[in-house]
Design a protein that fits this description.
The structure holds two protein chains of two kinds. Chain A is mainly alpha-helical. Helix content of chain A is about 80%, strand content about 0%. Chain B is α/β, with parallel strands linked by helices. Helices cover about 35% and strands about 25% of the residues of chain B. The longest helix of chain B is centred in the middle third of the chain and has 14 residues. The termini of chain B are far apart. Classes of the chains: A mainly alpha, B alpha/beta.
């Protein structure tokens, strides 16, 4: 009995502290960003939107082991969902737009999950690429709804909660983004620690063993895909609300691939890794593209090669590994 | 005595090759049966047919009176037909505590819960540590599985099977790959299996077979050539010829 209590209590306390540290870290970084780059809040908001996409990829790739290069389909569906609701149906209340984005992302997650999960490994990757191209082409052709290659404009969100106008400087959008990110982070942290999250990690390691326990691998993965779609959809909706346009690039292979790279950079299978990867990548991209507009992609490439060679677990994963090795040695 | 598990005339051919040839085995509660046979006898195919990983060409599998032949492997597990693997299949990045509690949660239909954590569920944790305790794995409960010894991983395989509270347990070479010095612990674990559980063990280690099994079934070329007590198996001419060979001769010479 005593043993049971002991064994249960320790990780739980550790986990609560970890969650609080995460929330505090997001808030601190957000405040620093706000004061350090007051004229660049639009970039910071874009980073948050992309971070939601990267978190959403982490759910299926990092926690479930599903390979995907088509995850922007879920993000773009959220962006177009919120955008079309505003531009065509006059639904301009930002919270409602966000919810519509989440729902559109979930539907896109259900559709692409149903396709992608039919295969494994390399063929899964190829299917995911096919999915993003199909989504992209569908949005391109349905220009009456999406604005096609011109993009969808005329998105004029109302004041947030009827009080805070979306200002020219992007302050409202930024704060709204930070709050969304915090809410999503807390919910996802709960999710990945839950029995469902544990089941997903099991599937990532050995689906046959999970099957032999009597659990359905495919329906579990599909559920995760839908949840992942909601998260990406929120990110897309935030993008639509803050930039007031939705372009085909939000539904592109490039964005899918870049987001996956950000995840690998930060470290798969951890929420912090996804966040750190996004911030590092987009900050570095912004920095070097300003410093050298001609060769910045080369530098981004060099950074990636360095990380993959010298820190294969990603920035966060490697730091965590080093830290746990040190505490083990000192213990 | 009613059979808890009944395989009738199970047959499987791959093209013209009959791999499992009208095999029938019946088990009652508490049975301890060893299934042996030379390499290529069709043991693995038989296990795959029984667990639902392969579809039989003909024949039936009944579990507690219910015909489960048409059910897939997952549905069979949920009805109490559980297997262990010849080569350990575990989640190497997870802890034994997580493994066993996941199995307990799955059995109780709670593995899809998206809130709370297993560590906060008192009954789950108590049962988990009960099982880990039975198998002597408590001290390793929080270690990563990739960091524990192979013999202990094999014990964890048994722990997982127990956590699912099966009616019938198929053990596929539970001591395979375990150093001789550690097989004793596997045997102890097998002795502690619930008394009313029907166990079918596939094993090459004859010492283990003779100590564990009350009944031995010998499979050769997809056909059951012997079904009887362990003491008779070495004297059976067909078994000697098909399988035991030098082992039986060594026994009679001693």
């Amino acid at each position: 009995m005593n043993e049971t209590n002991l064994a249960g209590a320790v990780p739980r306390r550790k986990m609560e502290i970890g969650g609080l540290v995460g929330v505090a870290a997001i808030i601190v970084v957000a405040i620093i960003g706000y004061f350090l780059f007051p004229s660049n809040l639009a970039l910071l908001t874009r980073i948050i939107g992309t971070a939601l996409l990267v978190l959403s990829i982490d759910l299926v790739t990092g926690y479930c082991g599903v390979a995907t290069l088509g995850h922007a389909a879920l993000f773009g569906a959220g962006a177009y969902g919120a955008g079309i609701a505003a531009a065509h149906f006059g639904i301009t209340e930002p919270l409602t737009m966000t919810l519509i984005g989440a729902a559109a992302g979930a539907v896109a997650g259900l559709v692409s999950g149903a396709i992608v999960l039919r295969a494994h490994g390399l063929s899964q990757l190829v299917l995911s690429i096919a999915v993003i191209h199909l989504f992209h082409e569908a949005a391109n052709k349905a220009s009456g709804w999406t604005g096609g290659s011109d993009g969808l404009a005329d998105i004029m969100p109302d004041a947030l909660l009827g009080m805070f106008e979306f200002d020219l400087w992007g302050q409202t959008a930024y704060i709204y983004g930070v709050v969304l990110l915090l809410v999503v982070f807390v919910l996802l942290r709960m999710l990945v620690r839950s029995p469902f999250g544990m089941l997903c990690r099991g599937i990532k390691e050995d689906p046959i063993r999970v099957h032999a326990m009597g659990a359905s691998v495919n329906s579990t993965l599909l559920k995760m895909y839908v949840i992942s779609g909601m998260v990406a959809g929120v990110g897309g909706a935030l993008n639509a609300i803050s930039t007031q346009v939705v372009g085909l690039d939000s539904l592109s292979f490039t964005l899918s691939a870049e987001a996956l790279v950000m995840l690998v950079l930060g470290g798969t299978g951890s929420l912090f890794g996804a966040l750190i990867g996004t911030v590092t990548f987009m900050w570095f991209e912004d920095l070097v593209s300003a410093a050298n507009p001609f060769h910045w992609l080369t530098m981004v490439g060099a950074l990636l090669i360095a990380v993959v060679l010298f820190a294969p677990r990603g920035l966060y994963g490697t730091a965590q590994h080093l830290f746990s090795r040190r505490t083990e040695r000192s213990a | 005595m009613s059979a808890i598990f009944e395989v009738q005339q199970l047959r499987r051919n791959f093209g013209g090759l009959v791999v499992t040839n009208d095999v029938s085995i019946s088990m009652a509660k508490g049975d301890r049966i060893a299934l042996i046979g030379p390499n290529g006898a069709g043991k693995t195919t038989f296990v795959n047919l029984v667990t639902g990983n392969l579809k039989p060409s003909s024949g039936s599998v009944k579990l507690a009176g219910e015909d489960v032949t048409a059910l897939n492997s997952m549905q069979r597990v949920r009805r109490g037909l559980v297997r262990s693997f010849q080569v350990t299949r575990l989640f190497y990045d997870m802890t034994p505590e997580e493994h066993v509690s996941l199995a307990v949660l799955q059995r109780e239909g709670k593995s899809g819960r998206m809130f709370g954590s297993h560590a906060g569920m008192r009954e789950v944790m108590e049962e988990t540590y009960d099982i880990l305790g039975t198998l002597g794995l408590t001290a390793l409960a929080q270690s990563r599985v990739s960091e524990i010894a192979y013999g202990q991983q094999r014990l964890l395989e048994i722990a997982l099977a127990l956590a699912l509270k099966p009616k019938v347990l198929l053990l596929d070479e539970p001591a395979a790959g375990v150093p001789q010095s550690d097989t004793g612990r596997i045997e102890q674990a097998l002795e502690k299996l619930p008394a009313d559980l029907a166990v079918l063990m596939i094993e090459h280690d004859m010492d283990l077979v003779f100590r564990f099994a009350k009944r031995v079934v010998v499979l050769a070329a997809g056909t059951v050539i012997f079904d009887g007590s362990p003491s008779d198996v070495t004297n059976d001419a067909r078994v000697r010829e098909a399988y035991l060979g030098s082992y039986a001769n060594a026994g009679s010479a001693a």
